[in-house]
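pasting for the record
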Amino acid sequence: MKLLSDIAKIKPGHPFRGKLNEDADGDVAVLQLKDITDSFFIDITNASRVDSSIIKSSYLLQEGSVIFRSRGHTNTCAIHHDADTPTVCAAPLFSIDVNPLLALPEYVCWFINQQSAQTYFNRNAKGTSVRMIDREALGNLPIPIPPLKKQREITAIAKLADREQRLMDQLREKKKTLLSGILAQVASGTGIDAENERLPEVVATPQEDKDNHPEP
């Protein structure tokens, strides 16, 4: 078991005085809290832009930088992969640059998003109205460091599980939309004849069946 600060360099987000002055023609993207999705992905599509003349080069993100949400009720992270676009993150985000000889960014990101790490953050958060994880608390996060080969295996399995969950969510949403449309036609009398035709049976997805019938 090591501390996060033992295996990674933690930097605060780029400081901006007052409100961020966006420049539509700016050549540097600025990641903010809104640009990290609840699914632990960074969406740079609508990120604010600024001119590079106001950016300190030491704050530019590297390929594989782990971006951590230090403020709010959800202290999770995502990985920056867009190496083609010069990018910085703005406070209150932190960037975590992992030592590649000790750990994989994907593994560190996966661990931070797990319940054990979230429990640690809950115990070490500061503030009442606005919850905050400071740099010291983040750096003191205990993290197990298995061999790199094992880290790759863990992250590969986790990635497959996430993909399966997203597909299940998409299937559930499409089924809901389809069924709503059919029932709306029945109600308006423009679709299935409710008096003479049977309504379609609803078949639960494996995940829904598991949710509705948990194992004892």
